[in-house]
Amino acid sequence: MPDLTLVETQPRNRTRAVRVGRLIIGGGAPIAVQSMAATRTQDIEATVRQVTLIAAAGADLVRIAVDSRKDVEALAEVRARTRDLAIPLSVDLQENYRLAELVAPHVDKVRYNPGHLYHHERDKPVRDKVAFLAEIAEKHDIALRVGVNCGSVDPVKTAEYGADDVGAMVASALEHCAMLDELGFTRYVVSMKDSDWKKVVEGNQRFAEQRPDVPLHLGVTEAGMPPDGVIKTRIAFEQLIAQGIGDTVRVSLTVPFDDKGMEIAAGREIIADIAAGRFRSVPPNFGEGLNIISCPSCSRVENMAFIDLARQVKEMAAYASEHRITIAIMGCRVNGPGETDDADLGLWCGPVAVNLKRGAEELGAYPYDTVLGRLRTELDTLIEAKRAAQ
């Protein structure tokens, strides 16, 4: 494992220290590297194996998604069977923020999404929901992460900021920080993620300028498959960490479940390179042609064929590499519908079929073994339209 003591030679923002179990994030502590279990949480054997694998790869923290009471029951068993690993666990709440009360006894941190919080129990003020989460966290001695995501920003903020989606993301994060501060709860970390590394850099810079005290979790969401996913993430991290921004990181890659340790290895390597002044050059014209976005998979994936499909899409679309086209492949119903809207062509994967989109327009659901052909037809049509416009 690289010697990360060199990281301390880099200037670091003086963020406050946030304790997550035995781990300290911020406050000058070494940059923590984390990953997320890609297995279905209710598959206890697979999830225990996944947590063990990620821990063995050198992770400082592992995150698990919870979306139902059955997931909570499974989480309790996973925690019991991985306690000897002495690795902090974080849980990723989806729409049902009230599950926090059930998961809190089994984890060290809870991540909530302000956009999802807005949509659940709409008749209730958002501040009341945040107060509930802060109260639970205080009671169970755990930390929170305010996780703002590009595809699920609070619609009020989206309407307010219009085309400035980075501004909407930052405003949402700042608003939730203010609410938590007013409630007297300061044991929190913030993340602002996008699949576009440029927006990740801009968003975190803008936030850090206004709240240099708040620890930041860095990541390019849906970075995709290696090597492109690692390159996108490296570019963002090199710019931010070199400016003293970032206290914990995740490299989000679409890889088979047994290869999840690659996320930890990539994160460690990037941090060590930055600390040693080894900044990698960007490949010529990187990001100017075909852009494949794919999520790193998690317990919400309803069909493991999603991972193979992402690889097949990349191989099939290689002939379009020179065209400025974005194809997004999402693995679940939670992130799929919204986070494919900005792509030229999007696929979000259900249990038995793949939902194909052209921008925000739904084109229909297709079996996994036939969707590739329809996608190619749409891709050819898009290329011809772009040629005609030129």
How are the SSEs ordered, and which strands pair?
Elements lengths: L17 E3 L2 E3 L6 E5 L7 H13 L4 E6 L2 H14 L6 E5 L6 H4 L5 E4 L1 H6 L6 H15 L2 E7 L5 H7 L3 H18 L5 E6 L3 H14 L5 E3 L9 H14 L6 E2 L11 H15 L15 E4 L10 H12 L9 E5 L5 H4 L5 E5 L3 E6 L2 E7 L3 H19 L1
The chain-level mean pLDDT equals 91
Name the CATH homologous superfamily of the largest domain.
Dihydropteroate synthase-like
Number of strands: 15
- Determine the N-to-C terminus distance: 50 Å
Helix content: 25-40%
The tally of domains stands at 2
How big a fraction of the residues is strand? 15-25%
Helices, by number, come to 13
Q: Could you characterize the architecture of this molecule?
A:
- By secondary structure, the chain is of the alpha/beta class.
- It has two domains: 272 residues, Alpha-Beta Barrel (TIM Barrel); 99 residues, 2-Layer Sandwich (Sulfite Reductase Hemoprotein, domain 1).
- Helix content is 40%, strand content 18%.
- It is built from 13 helices and 15 strands.
- Strands 3-4-5-6-7-8-9-10 form an eight-stranded parallel β-barrel, surrounded by six helices.
- Helix 3 links the parallel strand 5 and strand 6.
- Helix 1 packs across helix 2 and helix 7 packs parallel to helix 8.
- The longest helix has 19 residues.
State the gist of this model.
40% of the residues lie in helices and 18% in strands. It has 390 residues and is of the alpha/beta class. The strands form three sheets. The protein has an eight-stranded parallel β-barrel with strand order 3-4-5-6-7-8-9-10, surrounded by six helices. Strands 11-12-13-14-15 form a five-stranded mixed β-sheet.
